[in-house]
Design brief:
By secondary structure, the protein is of the alpha/beta class. It has two domains: 182 residues; 289 residues, no CATH class. It is 40% helix and 10% strand. The strands form four sheets. The protein has a six-stranded mixed β-sheet with strand order 5-4-6-9-8-10, sandwiched between helices. Strands 13-12-14-15 form a four-stranded parallel β-sheet, sandwiched between helices. It has a three-stranded mixed β-sheet with strand order 1-2-3. Strand 12, helix 16 and strand 13 form a beta-alpha-beta unit. Helix 8 runs antiparallel to helix 10, helix 17 runs antiparallel to helix 22 and helix 23 packs across helix 24. It is globular and about 95 Å long. The protein binds 2-acetamido-2-deoxy-beta-D-glucopyranose (NAG) (5 copies). One 2-acetamido-2-deoxy-beta-D-glucopyranose (NAG) binds next to helix 16. The site of one 2-acetamido-2-deoxy-beta-D-glucopyranose has 3 residues, from loops. Keywords: Signal.
Length: 633
């Protein structure tokens, strides 16, 4: 054994050799110069271009003396596959940052805001005895429309049935009353409450009660807050909506069942039948124990009474021979009112945002298609009608449809719905510079982040691209502005889920001429002409067909390059992303936001698929803009 001080020396020597062996000697190249550090502090994550051509050497060298960094743990449901590879995101309150990589330490993971919690809303559905399969399916489609409309407003709609009611401790007791022999409607109303009680309260809605209002309508806002201190209903909506907490709901059920009327149901037969009037059996049994909220106009309820009073031509179809047709007309009527509400909310119409308009026509097909269908008058059996809760609406007039225009930049408005396409910087590069590929030399000669600069030319002119990208993220994802715009990525060919984003189906058929017409001879529906393409932007030279054909080809080339797993293409794409960091970040953010929105919905559809009103049970197989069932007649 060497003496003690040699042991120490040996240990130091050993450490030194291992370090050198593992990481090599420090060279001056590894040590950043003062300028580099100063630059990095001023422009985080903006590598200088000189380093770019040799990008392949870049992959992170071991950094024994760098700050230790823990990668954040992978969150559940934070990725989704696409033909462009894995799309990843990370939910964090710190999403108002220019560059996600500051939080995720990974270029490809976008930081998104945490998901808003969706308060559950319940409805109760029970098919009547001996009901035909077709009628059940038609009712399922109405329930699906109910689910979609509430989903679009930020709720999590669940459909309950007698199976949930059976789980309630008081179910047996209600069964013994044999109320179905006295009045089936009264019995179903109590079952509804039992099912609701089993779910621990919350919001209970009829499946013909749908939200028809702007996103920040006070009533919808109150329901979203998930705090219901008092058991309540809404004045004028009969039994369309109740809300309350678990304890209050259970106490109410108990009190209602203990009503003296039920001690002898044969003796009190007529009084029990009378209970279903007005706000329904439970509300009548409870009287003042349920608070009636007044002045709430956010919800439309298509009760039998409303149908008979306001939409008589539809109500008349609800006979036992034409019930199926009645249900389909009602589905179209409701869809048309949801769509009309959207058109009324955005009184200044729709703007399709087309930055750098000389070269981006081929990017706009999909958004213009959506915008035209959104501005078309909705297919309806009662075309001039208003939703039941908005009797003073402005009905859609095909001679003066909702305004549709092209803008070259984003506007700061909530009166106009804005739709845009976010291109990958490589896609934009090919189109904007009319080139078939991009290389480092050419890239040197171009400006950075052109797309964002053009997009923000009105509201954040002369700001840094970091400011602009933060603003863009807010427009896409903040709860206030997300409901007023839609952002698609240029590289995706088809857009799914539009009907869940808007809460209604876009019209899929249009009148062949300038006048309203009917889709078939015996149909009672009225369809309207499709609005024209928006007028070209003033002062922007229109391109001829040949030029646009080249644009389409370049778009295809860009899609292929971005999709490619080839090393060369990956380097080129990476280089373009490094040069246009803000544009690339905007693209990744918009892409991750819509991938997450879709994933959230698909996951939930998967959970609900066995229940009434799922797409599967309604004979609807896609979640696309074209749930083609609605324009059926
Ligand atoms: C993607 O998400 C799934 C499910 O949450 C997870 O199991 C998987 O590890 C994730 N993949 C990556 C690369 O993060
Ligand atoms: C209920 O009332 C009917 C008629 O008034 C009477 O015949 C019957 O005996 C009563 N039943 C009970 C259980 O009190
Ligand atoms: C409609 O239903 C009622 C009651 O169920 C029945 O009495 C009537 O005969 C039915 N009419 C037709 C045309 O089936
Ligand atoms: C818009 O309507 C047309 C028919 O008028 C249809 O072909 C197209 O698929 C619709 N697009 C969307 C996104 O709904
Ligand atoms: C303006 C308007 O028509 N409001 C109606 C909304 O719906 C409730 C319930 O049906 C009616 O009571 C309001 O009059």
């Amino acid at each position: 054994m060497p003496p003690r001080r040699f042991q120490f020396l040996l240990a130091v020597l050993f450490l030194l050799t291992t370090t050198l062996f593992l990481f090599g000697p420090p060279t001056s190249a590894d040590l950043p110069s003062y300028d580099q550090v100063a630059d990095a502090v001023k422009h985080p994550k903006m590598p200088s271009l000189e380093n770019l051509p040799s990008l392949e050497d870049l992959p992170s060298p071991p950094r024994p003396f760098g700050p230790p960094v823990h990668k954040p743990p992978v969150q559940p449901d934070s990725n989704s596959t696409s033909s462009y590879g894995l799309i990843q995101w990370f939910r964090n309150y710190k999403w108002h940052i220019p560059f996600s990589s500051a939080v995720t330490f990974d270029e490809n993971t976008a930081v998104l805001p945490p998901l808003n919690e969706r308060p559950p809303i319940y409805t109760y559905y029970e098919a009547r005895d001996k009901q035909s399969k077709e009628v059940t399916e038609a009712e399922n489609r109405l329930v699906l429309a109910w689910r979609r409309a509430w989903w679009a407003q930020g709720f999590k709609p669940h459909v309950l049935s007698r199976d949930e009611a059976k789980q309630h401790p008081l179910y047996q007791m209600v069964q013994r009353l044999k109320l179905e022999k006295v009045d089936p409607e009264v019995e179903v109303e109590i079952m509804r409450w039992l099912a609701w009680g089993h779910m621990q309260g919350g919001i209970l809605a009829n499946w013909l009660a749908l939200p028809m209002a702007e996103y920040d309508n006070p009533m919808l806002g109150l329901l979203r807050r998930k705090q219901y201190p008092q058991l309540s209903r809404i004045d004028g909506l009969e039994n369309g909506i109740f809300f309350g907490e678990a304890g209050a709901v259970d106490a109410a059920i108990k009190k209602a069942i203990e009503n003296p009327l039920f001690t002898n149901v044969t003796q009190n037969h007529d009084k029990i039948v009378d209970l279903k009037k007005g706000a329904g059996a439970m509300a009548n049994l409870l009287g003042k124990d349920i608070k009636a909220e007044s002045k709430s106009n956010g919800i439309a309820y298509y009760s039998a009474a409303t149908l008979a009073n306001v939409y008589k031509s539809v109500a008349d179809k609800f006979t036992n021979t034409t019930q199926l047709e009645g249900l389909d007309l009602l589905a179209n009527l409701i869809n048309s009112h949801l769509h009309l509400t959207f058109q009324n909310i955005f009184s200044e119409g729709i703007a399709v945002i087309k930055p750098l308009p000389e070269h981006t026509t081929a990017l706009m097909y999909e958004v213009i298609d959506i915008a035209r269908n959104l501005t078309q008058c909705p297919t309806s059996p009662v075309p001039k009608s208003c939703p039941p809760n908005r009797s003073k609406c402005t009905p859609c007039n095909p001679a003066k449809p909702m305004k549709l225009e092209l803008h070259i930049a984003l506007k700061d408005t909530t009166k106009q719905y804005q739709i845009g396409t976010v291109p990958h910087p490589y896609t934009l590069g090919l189109l904007h510079y009319t080139r078939d590929t991009l290389d480092a030399n050419f890239l040197h000669s171009t400006g950075r982040d052109q797309w964002l600069a053009a997009l923000m030319a009105d509201i954040l002119k002369e700001h840094s691209s970091s400011d602009q990208v933060v603003r863009f993220k807010e427009v896409v994802a903040s709860p206030q502005s997300a409901p007023t715009s839609l952002w698609l990525t240029a590289e995706r060919i088809s857009q799914a889920d539009l009907d869940w984003i808007f809460g209604f189906n876009l019209p899929q058929i249009a009148s062949p001429n300038k006048d309203p017409s009917s889709p078939s001879e015996d149909s009672e529906l009225v369809i309207f002409p499709r609005p024209d393409e928006p007028a070209p932007i003033e002062g922007v030279q229109e391109q001829d067909a040949e030029f646009i054909k080249h644009e389409e080809e370049r778009l295809q080339k860009a899609r292929d390059a971005i999709k490619s797993t080839d090393k060369h293409w990956k380097e080129v794409i990476n280089m373009v992303e490094q040069w246009n960091q803000a544009d690339a970040e905007a693209w990744r953010f918009a892409r991750a936001f819509s991938a997450r929105r879709r994933q959230e919905r698909k996951k939930w559809e998967e959970e609900e698929k066995k229940f009434t009103g799922s797409e599967q049970k309604s004979g609807v197989h896609t979640g696309g803009g074209g749930g083609r069932w609605i324009d059926k007649f």
